[in-house]
Every structure is written in structure tokens, then in C-alpha cells.
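ok so I'm stuck.
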Amino acid sequence: MMGLNRDWIKKQGDFFVKSPINFLTAIIWYLKKYKDGKYCTLPHVIELMQADYEQLFNVLGKEEEIKVLINPFISAYQNEAMAQLEGQIASAKIGLARLSSPQLYYVLSGNDFTLDVNNPDEPKIICVGNNPQKLQVYGAVLSLYISRMIKLVNQKGKLKSALIFDEFPTIFFNNMDSLIATARSNKVATALAVQDFSQLKKDYGAEQSEVITGIVGNIISGQVTGNTAKTLSETFGKIMQDRQSKSINSSDISISKSMQLDYAIPASKIASLSSGEFVGMVADNPEEKIALKMFHCEIQNDHDAIAKEEMSYKPIPIVKTVSPEEIKENYESIKAQVADLLKAELGGTEAKQNENASYNTHKKILKDKKPTRKGPKNKESAGNTVSF
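replied:
not stuck anymore, here's the structure
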């Protein structure tokens, strides 16, 4: 939800930000519990959200674990606070509606492989890309999968792995600072590539961007300007540098030398780096000390060899060809599955309600037919009492 609504990042904790997130969480949790997660996919979540409130709340209310999440919505519905209810839920519906397409449904509803890339039994490489024309929409989908993947990867007893995020601000991942801090102990290397710190600040907010840029151990930078160059220069710190001044007058020439504390890599130097030049700072381990942690270097490339290598590149093989009919069939199948789910769950609810209604009616009829106790007709019968 944060990926679809970037302005929510700066409003975390707000009522109309937390409400749609809780609503979406309740639906995902219900589908996870329903038939062992058979329909726990994002397309099924989107379709289930479109159900009528009365049907949806009756279905979600069957799970005791999510009653706490949906109770505010049910209360608003029962108290006929429809304006408030629409404000709470519409934000989730409108945001996820942009993901409702047959093509996305086909990709997101499959179960081709797991996301635990560093599984010792089944190691794998996962490479996903965004669409520059639909960065925000597809970025939200990528954020969802990345969030799930990180929970599976950042565990003990797994293989060494790396998480590399190019154009990182185009996706949203909450608590990235926690991942960087904890993943090191689980042999997971995290690499974030951004064009400029200001880009990260715009998409993640000032607080989160400062934490992310401050917690990383290794920094490699090409040419950047403005505040980013200044920040990097301050991060690299100051060192003692030799200074020499020369004074010439009519009678003599004087040369003075001194030591002065100054920036190791000035901001002006960072702003004027050529293509292929980089500055940075690396971290080390206690058993592998690095004497010179800061560097200013240039990558020496053999451009002829690179061009020759690029000429030998082969196109990515097509694993499977999918027809438009298959995509449409899958789209309609998901809608039908959600409709069947509602029908099956509401059918059981209605049957139980009818059973309770029949029981109450039968109980009322028996109560109406119960004979009433009358007093004795004469004095003789009144005197004949029986005690137990």
C-alpha cells in the first residue's frame, strides 16, 4: 500500500492510512487460513475486496484471529457511518484497482517457484525488472514480493546471498535499515543503487533516507553534485594535509609549509569526477583489517574486449509462450473462484442462521402451547394438596 500511495510514507500512523492497511491485512490473513492458503494470491485479494460489505464482513467474521482487525469496519457499517467506512476502505480499493489486469493476474497467481533464493537445497537467482512507463504500479508489486523474499532470505542456516536493488527509490520497502543491520549476521549482502540522495529523500522521506544512508558500511560514488556531494565529503571525513604558501616581494622569496586538517575528498572533487572515476569508503572485519579504507580510483576498461563480448550475447530463451486466451481464462477463473468462495461461505452462514431461526420459532411455539396452571374449582379440591 505504501508503494501505491507514496504520500502515505510521510503519514504513517494516520487513521486513514492505517485503516486500509489493516483492512488489506485482514483479507490476506483470511485467504491464508482458507483451505491452507489455496487462494492466497494478490489477484484473489483484489477480487475479494470488491464484494459487498455485508457479504464480506460475514465471511471475514468467521476467522477469530482477524476479528480484531475488522471490528472497526463492522462497527462503522452497523452504525451506518458509511462516509467513514468508504474513507477507510476506498483508499485500499482504489490503489489496488490499478493492479487489476488480466496480464498481472496471470503473473501474480502462479506458483512456479519459491522466493527463498539462499535455500541450501534449492539455490536460485531471481531477477525482476520494472517498467519505466508504469514505475509506481509495478513498483508496488515488486515491493510486495521483495518484502516476502527478504523474510525468507534473512534467516540463520542459509547460504551466502546478495540482494541487489538498482534504482532502489522506484520501490518501497519499509524498515530497510533493519534489514541492512541484521542481514550481515545471516551472510546476506545488501546493495542499494540510487542516482542521488535527494531522490531517496523524496520517495522515502527525510528521516528514513538519513537512516539508510548513515547505516551502510560501504559507499561507492560516481559524479554527484549539490548536497549529496557535500554529504559524502563530510562522511569521508578530514585528514591532515600538507599546505605550502609562497610569498614574493622585491627583496626575497619566502616559502612556508604547514599541516592543516581538511576534507579528504572535497565536494568539488566529487562533483567533477569523470566517467569511470569513483570515490568511496569500504568496511572491514576484525580478522581482515584494511589499512586504506577510502579510495579515489578509475576503472580501467578494455572497451574492445567489452564490445566483442556484447556481440556474442544471446537473447534470453523463451521458457513458455502464453496465448491471450490463456490469460483471459485465468482472469475469469480467479473471479469465479472468489465468487464460489463467497457462495460457499455465505451458504453455510445462511444455513446456520436459518437453523437458529427455526430453533427459536419452534421454541416460541412450544412456549405458546404450554398449558397454564388454573386454580381449584371448588373448596374440596382446594383442600386436597399433595406435598413432595
